[in-house]
Design a protein that fits this description.
Residues 45-187 form the C-type lectin domain. The chain is mainly beta. The protein folds into two domains: 41-91 and 99-189, Mannose-Binding Protein A, Chain A; 192-253, no CATH class. Helices cover 9% and strands 36% of the residues. It has three helices and 18 strands. The relative contact order is 0.18.
Length: 256
């Protein structure tokens, strides 16, 4: 919030000489608003980023897609995290075979069938043992595309499009044939994202998203730390100018 224009004040110093004070861009504390790449939703409670992929893939292909973006199919550590997911607007495209008010996507659980006698019996497991604090879903609704030969089914989380249903946290869990194609939810750790939306590796210098393109910070655990700022003098010979929002000390002169 430092002054862009030169602010000159004339004060009498010792000996009667005039002292000129110039206020240049002064670095202020910055609130960093982005810890996820574009298209991802950030949740502070788990320091994680989430994204729904719309391209219909079977469970195993969805696992690989999430891994390519340094993530995994989402699992949940607490009810608050699940409520955050359910409350989001994921902008899911309409599918001709899905009711408009319901959305389903793969998540990182599998249902292991242990008994097929009179009714299906089994239990949920985490597909990939990544977290020590993961809650397991309740008894599922069994999908219509089940095969009698399959002993492992894959989890689909159903959320609702209507805001009133979404914000009340209503949802369902399905155990579905893993080779069915579906949208899916990826989860990854929060990361450093620079002012040009590039992902920054741990330990590297970068300019974080925010209002000051002259900050240089170190990426540590997805957070900008040890930031230093460059101070820019106004462009010479220019009365009116505009600062470039993404380039440090770059100005456009607006004089006629």
């Amino acid at each position: 919030h430092g002054k862009e224009n030169v602010d000159s004040r004339h004060n009498r110093g010792r000996g009667g000489e005039t002292t000129r004070f110039h206020t240049v861009n002064v670095a202020q504390p910055v609130r960093f608003s982005r810890k996820c790449p574009t298209g991802w939703h950030h949740y502070e409670g788990t320091a994680s980023c989430y994204r729904v992929y719309l391209n219909g893939e079977n469970y195993w292909d969805a696992v690989q897609t999430c891994q390519r973006v340094n993530g995994s199919l989402a699992t949940f550590t607490a009810d608050q995290e699940l409520r955050f997911i359910l409350a989001q607007e994921w902008d899911l495209e309409e599918k001709p075979f899905v009711r408009k008010d319901q959305r389903r996507f793969w998540v990182g659980y599998q249902y292991v069938i242990t008994n097929r006698n009179h009714s299906l019996e089994g239990h949920w497991e985490v597909a990939y043992k990544g977290s020590t604090e993961v809650f397991l879903p309740p008894d599922p609704i069994f999908g219509t595309a089940m095969s009698e030969n399959e002993n492992v089914l894959c989890a689909q989380l159903q959320c609702f499009h209507f805001p009133t249903l979404r914000h009340h946290g209503l949802h369902s869990w399905y155990a579905e044939n893993c080779y069915e194609k579906s949208s899916f939810l990826c989860k990854r750790s929060q990361t450093c994202v620079d002012i040009k939306d590039n992902i920054v590796d741990e330990g590297y210098y970068f300019t974080p998203k925010g209002n000051d393109p002259c900050l240089s910070c170190t990426c540590h655990n997805g957070e900008p730390e040890m930031c230093v700022a460059a101070l820019c003098e106004r462009p010479q010979g220019c009365q009116q100018y505009r600062k470039d929002p993404k380039e440090c000390c770059k100005f456009t002169c607006l004089d006629p």
